[in-house]
Amino acid sequence: MRRRSFSMALSRLDSLYMAVVADHSKSPHHHGVLPNVEQLQLNNPTCGDVINLSVKFDGDMIEDIAFAGDGCTISTASSSMMTDAVIGKTKEEALELAEIFSLMIQGNHKVDEDKLGEAKLLAGVSKFPQRIKCATLSWNALKMAIERSEL
């Protein structure tokens, strides 16, 4: 009986995680385009995901961030979660989060996933290698935006 209740609890937890991912996909946070900010476009030819990322920097801080484009559920949810995680952070902090996310999504769970906020809920994507590019697209765009801002 104890094993069954543990299994049911895990099933409920998975359902909760999936509900959060679905919510971020259906109603993404920071979705849109920031005016007067350079747009960075990145795509995932494997899945067809396209992201347009705009980041407004105030010196070393990410003052505002937004994304637009077409993406699958995982790509859109990851983009939404990424924007929540990095807004108000320094460039260095955001790059650290991108590295943690990248390691986590590749199956390295020895990283401090809690720093990612809700984005840690995407850790299970590591079990589906074909979806890793979907989950990392926005994070890679963020890294590129930060690199370009320092040129």
From TrEMBL:
<dbReference type="Pfam" id="PF01592">
    <property type="entry name" value="NifU_N"/>
</dbReference>
<dbReference type="GO" id="GO:0016226">
    <property type="term" value="P:iron-sulfur cluster assembly"/>
</dbReference>
<comment type="similarity">
    <text>Belongs to the NifU family.</text>
</comment>
<dbReference type="GO" id="GO:0005506">
    <property type="term" value="F:iron ion binding"/>
</dbReference>
<feature type="domain" description="NIF system FeS cluster assembly NifU N-terminal">
    <location>
        <begin position="17"/>
        <end position="134"/>
    </location>
</feature>
<dbReference type="GO" id="GO:0051536">
    <property type="term" value="F:iron-sulfur cluster binding"/>
</dbReference>
<dbReference type="InterPro" id="IPR002871">
    <property type="entry name" value="NIF_FeS_clus_asmbl_NifU_N"/>
</dbReference>
<protein>
    <recommendedName>
        <fullName>NIF system FeS cluster assembly NifU N-terminal domain-containing protein</fullName>
    </recommendedName>
</protein>
